[in-house]
Structure of cyclin-dependent kinase:
Amino acid sequence: MASKSRWADTEEDTALAAKLKKEKEEKRRLKAEKARRGETERQARLVGQQEQTNTATEDDGRPPKRRKTTPEPGQGGASTEKDGDVKLLRFPSRPWDKCRSVENYDCLNDIAEGTYGMVSRAKEIASGRVVALKRLKAELMDRSGLPVTGLREIQILRDCKHRNVVSLQEVVVGDDTSKIEKYNAFSIFLVLEFFEHDLKTVLEYMPEPFLLSEVKLLLYQLTSGVAYLHDHWILHRDLKTSNLLLNNRGRLKIADFGMARYVGDPAPEKLTQLVVTLWYRAPELLLGTRSYGRAVDMWSVGCIFAELLTRDPVFQGSNEVDQITKIFELCGVPTSETWPTFRSLPNARALRLPPKPPPAAAGSVIRARFTQLTNAGCALLSDLLALDPDRRPSAHEMLQHRYFQEDPKPKPESLFPTFPSKAGQERRRLHEPHAPIRGEEAAELGEVDVSGIFQGREKEERGGGFQLRMV
Ligand code: ADP
C-alpha cells in the first residue's frame, strides 16, 4: 500500500477543494454565457451594418466595401445556374422600392436593340447628363417577377470600378404610368455611362483598319479590364467586339455583364456550358466542358485581337461543328502534346481526327494569316489561341508581354482617332448570330449534350491541309 502523501488532504481540504472547483465551474459557465451573448450581439450588429450598406448601395450606386465573393466550401458562388450551386444572390424582397423612376430621364434616341434588351441614349432631366439606359427585358424575369440574370448583371456592375469597365450609375424603374409609351410596363433599367461607339460598329464602318499602335492600345485596355475582372473572381463569358464600348477620347470599356458570374477558387466544377457567343467560344466549351475558368475569356481576347487586325471575326462558324473545324484549321488539330487532356472532354469522343495529324504548326499558320504582326505579336496571338486552356496566358501575364513593350508602342488615348457616333443616330438592330441564351433558358440549354450535334451526322470538312471528320 502506498504511503500517504505528505500533501494528503484533510477533510477540511477536500471540502475546500470541492468548493473551489464548484466556483471555478460556475465562473467558466458565466464566461461561456458572456461569450455567447457577445457573439449574438456582434451578429446582430453585422446584420444591421449590412442593411445600412444595402441602403447606401441603393442610394449611391456602389457598396463602400467589396462583398465576399469566394464561395464557402460546398457553395457554388453567386449562381443562378442549375448546377447544384447554392444561390448566393440574396436581394431584399422588394429591391426596387428605393430606386428612382425612369421619369427622371428623357429618351433621346434608341441606340441598339441588343439580343437581350433595348439600349437607349437618354438625358437626366435635372442635370442634363447624357447616359445610356439599358432596359432589362421582361421575358427574362423569373417566376417571382425578378430578372434573374439582370440581378446578376446589376450585382457585378455595382461591385466593379475600373477605367476599362463600364460604370453603372444607378438602377431606375418604370411603371404603368410612365409617360414614355414604350416603357409602359413595369421595367428595370440600368443607367450606364454613355459611350459613343461599340467596337463592332466602328470596325464595320471605318474606312481603314486600325494602325498597329491603335490595336495595341485597344488590346491593352481590354486586357487591363479583363485582369481587373479576373482579380475580382468575375468571368465575363461573353467578350466580343459588340460588347466593347469606345468613346471619342480613345477609352475602351467592357460592357454587357448579362452572362458574367462570380467564381470561387477552385471554380465550381459544373458551370453552364452554353456561354460565349459562338464565334468567340473557346474549344474546351465547344467540346462540352462544364469545368472551365478564366482561360475562356482569354480565348475571346485572342479572337478580338485577331479581329482588330483584320476587321473581321477570325472564326465565323455556322454551328458548333463548323466552328471547331475552323479553329483546328488555324490552330492545328489537338494532339496529346498540344492538349494532353483533350480526350477526356465530353464531346471529344465524337470527333474523328486524322490518324496522323500534320505537325502542330499553329504558329506558322497564324504568321501566314496575320502578316502585319511582328514575331512578338504572333507569339502572343498564338498563345491566346492555344487549344489547351492551361497554355493560354493570364490577363496579368499578357500585360507584361514584350508585344506591348516593343515599337510601335500603344498610341496615347488622347491621340486616338475619332469616329462619327452611330449611337447618337437611328436605332440599329444588332445581328448577333449564336449569342448564348441567358436566364433560366440558358441554364437549361446548358445541360444539353452538344455531342448530339456531332453524332449520327457524317460530315467531312476539308481545310488547312488536313481532313477533319466528325461523326
Ligand atoms: P444585350 O445584353 O442586349 O446584348 P448590350 O449591353 O450588349 O445588350 O448592349 C447592346 C448594344 O447597345 C451594344 O452593342 C452597344 O452598341 C450599345 N450599348 C450598350 N451599352 C452602351 C453604353 N453604355 N453606351 C452606349 N452604347 C451602349
